[in-house]
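Show me any protein, keeping tokens residue-aligned.
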Amino acid sequence: MRKSLAPVSASSLNSRSSLAPRASLAPGKASLGRQSTLGGFGTRKSSIGGRQSMAPGGRRSTLAAGGPSKQMEDPRNVKDKTFINAAKHRLIEFLVENNYDRQISLKQLDAPTTKDYLHILMFLYNKIDPKFQLSQNIAEDVPAMFRRLRYPFNVSKSHLQAVGSPHAWPSLLASLVWIVELLQYEKQVEIAMMEDPESEHPDKMFFDYLAKAYDAFLQGSDNDEYIEQELAQAFDAKNEATQEEVNRISTANRKMEEEIQELSESKLEELQTKRSLLQKDLEKFKLLITNLEKHLVDVEKKTVEIKEDASAKEAELKAAEVEKAHLQEVVGQQETKAIDAQRIAAERGRLQEDLRKTSAEKESLQNNIYNAEITLANKQADIEKQIQEYNRTATEMKIVPATAKHADGIAFDIPVASRGNGVDQLIALGGKSSLKQDLVNLRDSFLEKAQEVHSQRMEGEEKVRDMQMQVEEKKEEIANLEEECRTKEQLLVRDKELLEMELKNTATEVQALEEMVASGMSMGKARLVAAKKKVEELQREFKEVQSGYQRRRSARSDSLMALCSLAAQHKLNVQVDPPTLLLRA
């Protein structure tokens, strides 16, 4: 049993899968602000005990009525002071909000009189049934009121005789608060039903049709064609909306397919392959440039050493020339000897040979440096060309610049410096150490988008198939109901024709007998008596046939209503989730 009467949501209202009988809040009112088809306490009772209310409003009331329910122990601590104070405040707040016609205060609710209690009770109950009035027998009427509202606890007659006593007032106050919660719950249900976005659900439409048809049946109306026309028009409108949704989804699917086809026919794979090759070439060029830089450093070191050596040799040469000039001066002042001349000539030849070798080695080193510079320049030109090709391809793929369509704010371009002396100067990445990872992430994002588009396409196709199946099911249900109605109408027409023929034959026989009686008075009293008996038998037989026809008609109507109820119950049962079906099994 539900202990709380908190507000409910629209989704919870639509999730009710049971069509178990449940009557309205009171016999005079199916729901707040709407008259019920049943009367008050003094009106006629239903021929079916516990039958659910099917008001013309189209939905069952959330407030129950009927016979007494099983009594249970009140789980509320009604004698607790906190509970009593909260109940008083809640009752006063509701009475004030609903324009209670008397003054009310907390002090008055500490120990109210029987008159005050009955006035508050009638004010609340008239929200449910405005026409209800208490009789003089309060001890019988008040418990009956709560039983009809299916109040789960007993309202003692002894408490009604001493309303303001400490032992009676807490339970009576709790019963008043229960009615307040019931009214507030009904108000929340109506608000939720008005705000329900699925108010045009096929199950609700079918239930509205059943409610209107049953109401017409209770009122004895045989003209229910307008109800069927309203149902057909509602389903036609629903089918049109469904068809528009199917067309919209088909158009979206077609656009997705075109986009997927366009993406499939693009040069993405070719460009990715080319990008991979360029990345490999870039790594090779970086390695080559690193090796060339190391070689260049070694050559520069050797060049410096050779220059230093050449400078030393030049210093030695200058010192030798000075020494030569000094020696020539000394030789000029001395007498020339053959041995000294030969020695000097040999020394000069040796020095000239060393000078020649040093000059040749210097020229060779300069040639090597020049060739290395040319090779480095060629490699730099190749790298610039490859980077330019990469930037052009990236621009075609719309990942360059950073504001491009697929760039996501990441700069995938590689700026190139003109003729630098090193790889850091040549490829001015500007801190783009994660370029390769960014490109890998971009590839992965393209693959994820393709998979997402494919998944959306599959989901759209699945939704279209489901909607088509639902449309076919609804068409089949409508066709079955129409066929069943036609069959029932044919049977009724046939029975009516048979009864009319029997009646016509009986009337003909009666007229013939009357003519015979009128013209044959002389035939005797016995014949007249026999004719009268036959007329009486024929009239009795006609009445029996007529009553049988009425019984058959009533039986067929009951069968039709039972069939509709079974169809509605079956539709709700097949919508219950598998775990609930297993529990029921």
Summary: Residues 1-69, 581-585 have pLDDT under 50 and may be disordered. The longest strand covers residues 29-31.
